[in-house]
Amino acid sequence: MNLVERIADAWQVLLGKPSHGEALAAEEIASLKRTGANLTLELQEARTAVASLRGMVEEMEERAGATDPLEEIFAQVAGPLSQLRLQESLIAVGKQISGKSVMALASEVAGILEDAGLEPIGSVGEETVFDPALAEPLASGMALSSGAPVVVRFIGYRYEGEVIRKALVDSRGGWDELLEK
């Protein structure tokens, strides 16, 4: 700073105004405050991102550590299915198998699947009213109107509220009539 600039600066100070150095320092302080505010915002955003990523990692670790629900169902069904396959192979070589033992195993498998969320729609021989969202006629030419009395011949199934197989129904007679056929 030359002599003239120093005298001008001293004159500014005498008039109560900031010196040139003080003005520069004030500008630098304001710039640093802006930079600090921006860095604070960036830090907050980074912390939020890190927290979100930690949550995602924890969720992924939980999924990785959790057993697959299908694996649990398969583990439960494996025993009865193995026995059913044994009975199938015995029948293939001409051995007599008790229908009761086959049905006991089939019922066990059905129970496992139903416990896992597979919901039956109706029961065989049940007399009910026709609901086209849950059932369809057993015979292709049969026309049924909604609310008409019907008999369930083959149960349907739904899973998590979605119908995956409609019940097959008939407009004729009850369970006793079916057994007479």
Considering the chains and any ligands shown, give keywords for the structure.
7 strands, elongated, single chain, 5 helices, 181 residues, alpha+beta, three-stranded antiparallel β-sheet
Task: Give a structural overview.
The chain has 181 residues and is of the alpha+beta class. Helix content is 58%, strand content 15%. The chain has five helices and seven strands. It has helices spanning 3-14, 20-65, 69-92, 99-115, 175-180, and strands at 118-121, 127-129, 135-137, 149-154, 156-159, 162-165, 167-170. The strands form two sheets. The protein has a four-stranded mixed β-sheet, with no helix packed on it. A three-stranded antiparallel β-sheet has the order 1-5-6. Helix 3 (69-92) packs antiparallel against helix 4 (99-115). The longest helix has 46 residues, at 20-65.
Counting DSSP E segments of at least 2 residues, the number of strands comes to 7
> What strand line-up does the widest sheet have?
2-4-7-3
Q: Counting H and I runs of at least 4 residues, what is the number of helices?
A: 5
- Mean of residue pLDDT values: 88
Gyration radius (Cα, Å) is 40 Å
Structural class of the helix and strand makeup? Answer: alpha+beta
Put the structure in a nutshell.
This protein has 181 residues and is of the alpha+beta class.
Protein topology:
Elements: H1 3-14, H2 20-65, H3 69-92, H4 99-115, E1 118-121, E2 127-129, E3 135-137, E4 149-154, E5 156-159, E6 162-165, E7 167-170, H5 175-180
Parallel strand pairs: 3-7
Antiparallel strand pairs: 1-5, 2-4, 4-7, 5-6
Helix pairs in contact: 3-4
